[in-house]
Amino acid sequence: MDVTLPDFSRDTDRGQVGIETLIIFIAMILVAAIAASVLINTAGYLQNQASATSEDSEAQVSNQVLVISSIGQIDEVDRATQDVEATLHDSNTSFTLSGSSDYSGDLDISVAGSDVGTWDTTAQDSYSVTISDTESFTLTADDGTSASGTYNTGSDATATLTSVLISGTGTNQVGHINMTVMQSPGANEIDLEGASVEYIGPDGEATLGYAEMASAGVGDFAVEGTTDPDNTVPVLTSRQDRFTIMLDLANDDSADLRNLQEGEEATVRIVTQSGSQAVTVVNVPQSLSSYSDEDAVEL
């Protein structure tokens, strides 16, 4: 009897093809899953980075300080002084400068407590007065220095004004800069202790760091609470706060942070922790001759 065995070769071949397809299909799913995971992670990273960048950009734009005003303080530098002697001569009762005085300015004259006139020493060699025996007189110079004497018939009387500023000598310079600042609209709290101040002067530049007022000097900046209801200085917490940023300059012509002279200008840039910048240019008036030591001048 003949036995016929089934031919399974075709089914076997078809089974092998199915396994290979399944393997390829699984591999494709794995690759797609990995690719999707990478894309999701990358998208999340980019989203976080974009959010952080957006917040930083927003802080740079909104967390700014506004410079309301800039005031300079006058330093009198190299002001020459000397003693001035004025002698009242008995022969003609007129004052003349004696000794080797270089004073050239006004001397106000009063006799017995009453003003009698002003002696312009640049235009008049002498100044005549009417004075009685044993009457006292007083001479007052431009800077307020005064000296008194008593006239006696038959003798000259000399009044000596000690340490009078000589007219036309010395210079006034700006030795301190005070800038009043406030928050810009929409700003959050701004901690000026973490800020820096960049100063660009006529002869150099420097970056200044924060220091307490008691220890601040040239190369530092200090902060004072001008209007500070909550006593939060040096942190600006509201738009009602008004703080003064103070810079000291050096009485040294070779220093980068030297005093500012007449007609000069400097640029001051305030950089906060968020990276925002407030730039102001301070301009010294063309003449400072009418100011006195520690006077304030608008820059």
Structural account:
- The chain is of the alpha+beta class and 299 residues long.
- The protein folds into 3 domains: 1-41; 63-77 and 171-298, Immunoglobulins (Immunoglobulin-like, Sandwich); 81-165.
- Helix content is 18%, strand content 41%.
- The chain is built from 1 helix and 19 strands.
- The chain has a 9-stranded mixed β-sheet, with no helix packed on it. The chain has a 4-stranded antiparallel β-sheet with strand order 6-3-2-9, with no helix packed on it.
- Strand 2 (81-89) and strand 3 (94-98) form a beta hairpin.
- The longest helix is centred in the N-terminal third of the chain and has 54 residues, at 9-62.
- It starts with 8 loop residues before the first helix and ends with a strand.
- The relative contact order is 0.16.
Estimate the global geometry from the Cα principal axes: rod-shaped
C-alpha end-to-end distance: 125 Å
How much beta, percentage-wise?
Answer: 35-45%
Helix content: 10-25%
The strands making up the biggest β-sheet line up spatially as 18-17-12-13-14-16-10-1-19
Q: Count of DSSP helices?
A: 1
Order of helices and strands: HEEEEEEEEEEEEEEEEEEE
Residue-averaged pLDDT, rounded? 85
The CATH C-level name of the largest domain is Mainly Beta
Output the CATH topology of the largest domain: Immunoglobulin-like
**Estimated radius of gyration:** 41 Å
Which structural class is indicated by helix and strand composition?
alpha+beta
Domain module count: 3
Low-confidence regions: none
Question: In CATH terms, what is the architecture of the largest domain?
Answer: Sandwich
Number of strands: 19
Largest sheet: 9 strands, mixed
CATH superfamily of the largest domain: Immunoglobulins
